[in-house]
């Protein structure tokens, strides 16, 4: 679908070096990397918006390296969204139709579908200046998808959003990807995005691809220290789905972890993640609705200023996060016994 | 401390009043000096009307030429980083810093009969010296930096990402310019046109070297002052100033809206 061979892009203070990448049709591919790693530049190179020094880019088997952006069938959604400020929401969404021969009835159908999917109908007469961050994000998505692109490039679409909008847009992206069948290529520096929506991942650093693989592979078998550090491989565990309908859990071999996600499969090997901030640390067992509570020994304390990471051996090693105030109040030392408690809904399968 | 602050405030206000007085006093005096009869006579004087009209339309032509040639160049400068860009920008600014009669002499040395270019023009029957063409050439020379700089600022204020998105949605470079860049930058371009024509309409030093005749309004004011004195030149000066003021007001209104537009973006 997208094939990149030996791509080099030279900029005065930065360059992409020998990028080789293959993205399958219909993938939700995530390019993960820190700020300044060249993610956006790579997207722009695929979209034909920056000159390529060496290498080839193929989309659907066609060499597009020297094609202008308008002939590539690629839409881009920037981090700052780049909505046209002088056009209304509806005009923004329909902008691409001026340049594509799409049957009127089909275009109208698609427009209605996007307006409904992204809940944009009440906003169509507004100008971008009168929209919230989440609304602008949805308009930018609708505008990009309106022309039914074979590839949708997303440049950190979630980074500037409030946590509530983030969850919402993330869900919408996943749904749109499933329903449009287009190939999505998203860049992000947030590994949580990867966990939730990516089918495959490439980690990029200083203009070079460090590792490509599926999500499990990147998290479980990072091939470099950079990748391991970057994906913050904390509390990523592996186990087998088991239990009955009302009592589902994952057996890691050492602990049993209850989860809330809907799956009927049994005996299937799964990877799951519990975010350190979702784990409550206490010196006595908590009487709460949380379904998972384990006693363990503190093996390592990492002070990060306002927050402290505790590594606790509960059979498997789990990392929990506490604030400095809580840490001091509980007077936790290495070797102490503590209880780790988390909700079944804090367990994310991937 | 408080006293020092008060003294500073008083000094700033006094300086402000001095500047305002310095600008307004001569203008007010000039406006109030000619009698109504003299002004009426000036308006009815065909030569005066002709010279003012000549000033307006040559300045307008200079602005149109600046718009046509300057727009693509301003866009290029706003969007491309290249070696020597600063030098190019300095060259564009040159007409603003060169003394005006020198501009006239410089143009004359190219279009005059002693230079090959002037000889070619002469052979094909194009007269620059003492012609409307000469006036327009000089006015374009002095006015075009104002247009290019203002239009460039306007283009620079538009995120290139808007254009990138437009291209990725299927628009060609030209369509993108027409549908995205132009609607967002037109106000800057219009301000540039007004600034260019305001600058051109007031040009005297360079015009007088190239074309004493046909007579533009500034040249006529000078001629009447030299030949008949202050009182005779004042009515023409008042009329020309009124034209310039209308242009200036138009510019202010536009630039205010321009700033509002920038805030919205």
TrEMBL record, chain A:
Q: Which residues form the Mop domain?
A: 287-350
Question: MF terms per GO, please?
Answer: ATP binding; ATP hydrolysis activity
Q: Which Gene3D superfamilies match?
A: 2.40.50.100, P-loop containing nucleotide triphosphate hydrolases
Query: Per UniProt, which keywords does this protein have?
Result: ATP-binding, Molybdenum, Nucleotide-binding, Transport
- Specify whether Nucleotide-binding is a keyword of the entry: yes
Q: Which residues form the ABC transporter domain?
A: 2-231
Pfam families named among the record's database cross-references: ABC_tran, TOBE
Q: Does the keyword Transcription apply?
A: no
Q: Which InterPro entries match?
A: AAA+_ATPase, ABC_SmlMolc_Importer, ABC_transporter-like_ATP-bd, ABC_transporter-like_CS, Mo/tungstate-bd_C_term_dom, Mop_domain, P-loop_NTPase, Transp-assoc_OB_typ1
Organism's domain of life?
Bacteria
Instruction: State the Gene Ontology BP annotations.
Output: molybdate ion transport; quaternary ammonium group transport
Name-wise, this protein is ABC transporter ATP-binding protein
TrEMBL record, chain B:
Compartments (UniProt record) = Cell membrane
Provide the transmembrane region boundaries: 7-32, 52-78, 90-112, 124-148, 189-212, 232-255
Sorted keywords for this record are:
Cell membrane, Membrane, Transmembrane, Transmembrane helix, Transport
- Example of a GO biological process term: transmembrane transport
Q: Which Pfam families match?
A: BPD_transp_1 (PF00528)
Which SUPFAM superfamilies did the record assign?
A: MetI-like (SSF161098)
For this protein, the record's PROSITE patterns field holds: ABC_TM1 (PS50928)
* Annotated ABC transmembrane type-1 domain residues: 52-251
Q: How does it sit in the membrane?
A: Multi-pass membrane protein
Give the record's GO CC terms: plasma membrane
Q: Which PANTHER family match?
A: MOLYBDENUM TRANSPORT SYSTEM PERMEASE PROTEIN MODB (PTHR30183:SF3)
The UniProt family comment states:
Belongs to the binding-protein-dependent transport system permease family.
**Protein known as:** ABC transporter permease subunit
The organism encoding this protein is Aerophobetes bacterium
